[in-house]
Automatic annotation (TrEMBL), chains A, B:
DNA-binding region(s), chain positions: 37-56
Gene Ontology molecular functions: DNA-binding transcription factor activity; transcription cis-regulatory region binding
Origin: domain of life: Bacteria
Domain HTH tetR-type: from-to ranges: 14-74
Identification of the protein by name: Transcriptional regulator
Pfam families membership: TetR_C_30 (PF17939), TetR_N (PF00440)
InterPro entries associated with the record: DNA-bd_HTH_TetR-type_CS, Homeodomain-like_sf, HTH-type_TetR-like_transc_reg, HTH_TetR, PsrA_TetR_C, Tet_transcr_reg_TetR-rel_C_sf
Length: 236, 236
DNA sequence: ATGCTATTTGTACCATCGTACAAAAGAACA
DNA sequence: TGTTCTTTTGTACGATGGTACAAATAGCAT
């Protein structure tokens, strides 16, 4: 929207646009989309409500811009890490590297801000829970490619597991990831203070460790001899 | 609120109160708390907006009543299943039984309605993501006991794993559970139609299989020789 | 300084929200 | 049938929501 980047433009004084984006990201990620008003965002950013309309036209537009801002860098970083992980020779190590390549960028942003990755991932978690339309569209068309790439990579390192099972398990991984960012205090509470749910480094290690084992679990078909009544479908 | 249960009371004709509860549960679980208006709920239930106020006083009161309705039966069923699971001799089988005791009631209600358990669990997932205050309070004081019971039971069957690790892994399980109920279509999409994310029986088996393996993963301490910079804290 | 453009402010409109409340309708029992 | 209590309806009020828009302001090139 700006025309004259005469060496400042991005580094204007307090840069309202960025402040609004950051405030919105924070509020949306914490309280959900509908619970936060444009006025709340403006107030948190030290801006005027009208300013939000000026920069992003609508509230949806603001959310859209947040996604645009993060999706590219995050997927890029994931792709890089995935490519590196695929080059690991040992299959066990490779699997761990792949999982790490998936998890790490979700906790720590690959581009600008410090905890930006975690904040944005939490935002995605919340939007997904709320069934937000804007988010749903972007997510499907932006992350599915990356998700498939990861699933394929994992499948390559675990050829004896049906792809369907890997899809389920990677789905569980994303759920665990989301939930860890949404309710970290629950971990602290249930561990009676022995663990800090907000400690990203620790969360990552725990998640990688558990997830690698989950992926390595035997496939479903050969594991459950006879029990459930309705399945009958999934196979490979 | 009713005074004369002359053998009907609960089984009145279309029972508005129940219809409102069901509609609210459904809408909240799908769209979140703030996105749904009292008028939406009334409309979906075929009731009058004022009727909601009459029965539940406030919108928060309505949510509260939904929780009250489900928490008891669900925890009861979980306790029963957990008690049965603890009696399993073989440690491997016992662990699986415990996980199943945790997962199954979340997908299928223990009391009345068919998919009620899944619907309520999804509702909890969404409320947790939105940071809903009413839900947060009830959850902590209603589910933490059960959660501790499960964690202890799992710890008993895996004595060599530090309790902290088990807390993390059970947290991941709940995240996976929530996410599977919130976005089942993602599983169908990523598996290119080979799996049905909405198939509860299949989801349960996949989740149990993966989670048991995750719990059985080696403890973190002995697994990560030297890597991260900040941890230093958790130990047992 | 002067004009030009990008931004910020202030305000106002209209829709919708949660909730209150009086009136109507129904149900149960004398 | 009339009385009483419960439930449902209809409507209204005040607050807050998203968004539009004119006026004010600030930066920059000339």
């Amino acid at each position: 929207m700006a025309r004259k980047p005469t060496s400042k433009e991005t580094a204007r004084k307090p840069n309202m646009r960025e402040a609004i984006l950051a405030a919105a990201e924070d509020l949306f990620a914490t309280n959900g989309f509908n619970a936060v008003s444009v006025r709340d965002i403006a107030h948190a950013a030290g801006a005027n409500p009208g300013s939000v309309t000026y920069h992003f036209k609508t509230k949806d537009g603001l959310l859209l811009e947040i996604y645009r801002r993060h999706c590219g860098p995050m997927n890029l970083r994931r792709s890089e890490l995935l490519a590196a992980a695929r080059r690991v020779r040992d299959l066990q190590d490779r699997l761990e590297a792949i999982v790490r390549a998936y998890v790490v960028p979700a906790f720590t942003s690959g581009s600008d801000l410090a905890g930006g990755g975690a904040r944005f991932t939490r935002l995605r978690a919340v939007m997904s829970a709320e069934g937000n339309e804007v988010a749903r569209k972007i997510i499907a068309q932006t992350f599915d490619d990356t998700s498939h790439a990861f699933i394929d990579a994992i499948h390559d390192s675990l050829p004896h597991i049906p792809r369907t099972d890997i899809v389920w398990r990677s789905h569980f991984l994303l759920g665990a990831l989301y939930y860890s960012l949404v309710t970290p205090e629950r971990v602290s509470r249930l561990s009676r203070g022995e663990a800090d749910g907000s400690d990203a480094a620790n969360a990552i290690e725990q998640m990688v460790q558990a997830t690698v084992a989950a992926f390595q679990a035997p496939a479903l078909d050969q594991a459950v001899p006879a029990r459930r009544p309705t399945v009958a479908s999934n196979k490979t």
